[in-house]
Structures
1.
Amino acid sequence: MTELNQGALGPYNLQGKVAVITGGSSGIGAASARRLAELGATIAIGYNSGRERAEALAAELPGGGHIPLYLPMADTAAIRAAAAEVESRMGRADVLVNSAGTTRAVPHADLEALDDETFDRILITNVRGPYSTIRAFAPLLKRGGDAVVVNISSLAAVNGLGSSIAYCASKAALDVMGVSLARVLGPEIRVIGVSPAAVDTGFVPGRSRDAVLKQAALTPLKIVCQADDVALAVIAAVTHLRLTTGTSLLVDCGRHL
């Protein structure tokens, strides 16, 4: 029998830890970088096309040693190179936040509008990309013996209401993939999903702020979700949910009710 940890772990201490964040140059990823750095983590800010944003964020974060990191979700070789760069320059990885994602607003009833190219791009970025990233970083995460992966998912995975059917499908796949990975990556790595509803960012192309406000008005809590609100949930998952793995947390102001 595997030797058992006797529990009573206390909060996860981020001092001296390294956090890698995909899609870290903007939105939820950037907000998570700020919160993790405030608690003492050194951040590798993953980016695809937002190199200048990643560099600026690395310079402004508290602490030192933060780096921009080319981490495109559609290029497995580049993802493996990023993992090697983190190992070489930072020596460890303790937290991985999969925040990179994409979508396109396509009415669900218009089946022809959701073409194959769009469907494939969404699935590759939102599902294969996080899987490839976890696969590439798993040896480094396991080495520390107490690591955590946080996948930024969506309420769309649960209710099937989102910017497109492909987006809903991709987030449902991400959640189920998280269950499978939690089973095989323990006990060294926890895997937790954080699932917001509409967030007041420019993530969905063409979605107006009024649309976000209308969604917020439908929730029991009547709060407009900001990127930092989701980042706080990421922090909670990393630092306090020490016995949680293989599940997703709704951060939706009760929109699912």
2.
Amino acid sequence: MEVTADGSPVDVYLLLPPNGEAEIVHAAVPPGASILELGSGAGRVTHPLIELGHEVVAVDDSPSMLAHVRAETVCARIGDLRLGRAFDAVLLASHLVNTERDEDRHALLAAATRHLDPGGQLIVEWHPPEWFDTVAAGQGGRLGEVEIELADVVRDGDLLSATVRYAARGRQWHQEFTCRRLDLDTLLTSADLTFAGWLSADRTWFAARPGRVG
């Protein structure tokens, strides 16, 4: 079983279908907007965005994931990324912004903002603060043919650790993660960003623009 540096089982991500992410992004940006996707994985969101008419550059630090992406790809750690190009939108999905370490988050957001056009948008998927109060072992569901269940949920102040269990085609995988509860205003201020609106009713997606108001 091939696993990436962050513990993502490649085979699972090849089985997981899109879940409306591309449509949320598409509705928030101009038609045909260029998009830099940070942490693209195997292209689960990349490919629908291309089908919706966007030029996408997919960035991931896993060659095994990028081998399945049908777009321009860059294999690099997000925090180290310096393409010398600007995009209409930068996508930071998969709750990457809730990373455990503050320095890693600052590096992610710095990489995102230095690749944004001055009038561009950062599109973020995150775990909002209320998610941390309700998440529990046993929660999950089905995405395509993949059964998903949370286990071993542990809270430690603003940190939450858990294991995601996947099952499909008679196989099982697991992925451990730790994420941090964030305050939105603090998050935006730390990266010199301005809130530009919620993109989903459950407030798991939002947009931000470079520069602070006032």
3.
Amino acid sequence: MPVAIITGASKGLGRALAGALAARGWDLVLDARGAEPLKEAAEAVAGHGTHVTALPGDVADAGHRAELLAAARALGGADLLVSNASALGAEPLVRLAELPLEGLRRALEVNVVAALGLVQEALPLLRESAAGTVITVSSDAAAEAYGTWGGYGASKAALDQLAAVLGTEEPWLRVWAVDPGDMATDLYAAAVPDDDDPRPAPATVVPAFLRLLDERPASGRYAAASPAQGR
């Protein structure tokens, strides 16, 4: 069976994508910081009959990243790495004039440094796969200037650039930075707690991720709302 590593998989988009892949027969290695929500998510996903390894921890911890790769090796390798875990930098979000530098460092560490560290460790397994793929979950804040989203957006813009370069340096892999668009997630609620406007559930954008896996377009940045390559 193909094997996927998904970070930030206890809820939201990570959990929805994990469920969809398990339904297709994928074995999974799931990560999140919250042990109990991750356990609940893994039990639900395992109902599809595939192997699911759930490892709570912080992707910014090199030891935890090594554990994720060891778990993938135990399942037979790694065909897909999804970097979905994210940190906002401040909760709720604030203007750059008030953004704590320690919060920005945390966002960069989780969203950029840890994502690259996981890719570096996973590359030997991904290169061995006939369909090795890296997906980094981006944001429209990486490409647009929204007030209060500067720190988070900067980290996602950096992640987009890493994904673009990785796609150039590893031409036999598929590397996609995917902007899922607005979703009703705990992350968004923490970012903008006063925004009560309705947003689509994360499960509604999962078909766009599955379409990428089915069609395997060129490495690049894509928007879940459109099959066309984004900027």
